[in-house]
Amino acid sequence: MNIYGYIRVSTQEQNEDRQRISMQNVGVPAKNIYMDKRSGKDFNRPKYQKLLRKMRKDDLLYIKSIDRLGRNYEEILFQWRLLTKDKGIDIVVLDMPLLDTRRGKDLMGTFLSDIVLQVLSFVAENERTNIRQRQAEGIAAAKARGVKFGRPPLPLPDGFYEIHKAWREGRLTLKQASEACGMKAGTFYGKARKFENND
């Protein structure tokens, strides 16, 4: 029997130390800890897929919490069954002692484990939905306060006002005006319209 650990954080900036320490505390060898810095929306994660290929029947997999496995209800249930039923791997969810497939392999134990898994999987997906909604609400609120997103616009090039005037008076074509400003025609036109609207 080999012991493995799986760690997931959603972004490159997030810290995985809490999960790694938990794995070390239960004796998972450092070489058997697999980590993805990816969203939990699906299981197309390179390290998880590598771990899936590596594990064999009767191996043991530790995860810190069910949302570290994933945040998609149907996918979590599918992967859980794939690991435990198809591959014959035991799973221990450290933050939820009821989710330890080494215990209660009788009908009642399996039944309780399945109920807990379904509830936690639902909570994980629901939290993902809530996170997206909070992000959208935060962005909308920031926009309402006048916060600008994206890169700040580049300043207008020297001589823009004279070139713009010459273009509007027909002394320059759009192509000539945009080239004189060192811009693409569409960029020049957009800046010209914005300038006129603000004027």
Write the layout of secondary structure elements.
Layout: E1 3-9, H1 17-25, E2 33-37, H2 46-54, E3 60-63, H3 66-69, H4 73-86, E4 90-93, H5 107-144, H6 160-168, H7 174-180, H8 185-198
Parallel strand pairs: 1-2, 1-3, 3-4
Average pLDDT works out at 85
**Which residue ranges are poorly predicted, with pLDDT under 50 across at least 5 consecutive positions?**
none
Summed up, the helix count is 8
Count of discrete structural domains: 2
The beta-strand count equals: 4
Largest sheet: 4 strands, parallel
List keywords for this structure.
199 residues, alpha/beta, Rossmann fold, four-stranded parallel β-sheet, 8 helices, 10% strand, elongated
Q: In words, what does this structure look like?
A:
- It is a single chain.
- With 199 residues, the chain is an alpha/beta fold.
- Helices cover 52% and strands 10% of the residues.
- It contains 8 helices and 4 strands.
- Helix 4 runs antiparallel to helix 5 and helix 6 runs antiparallel to helix 7.
- The N and C termini lie far apart (74 Å).
Brief description of this entry?
By secondary structure, the protein is of the alpha/beta class.
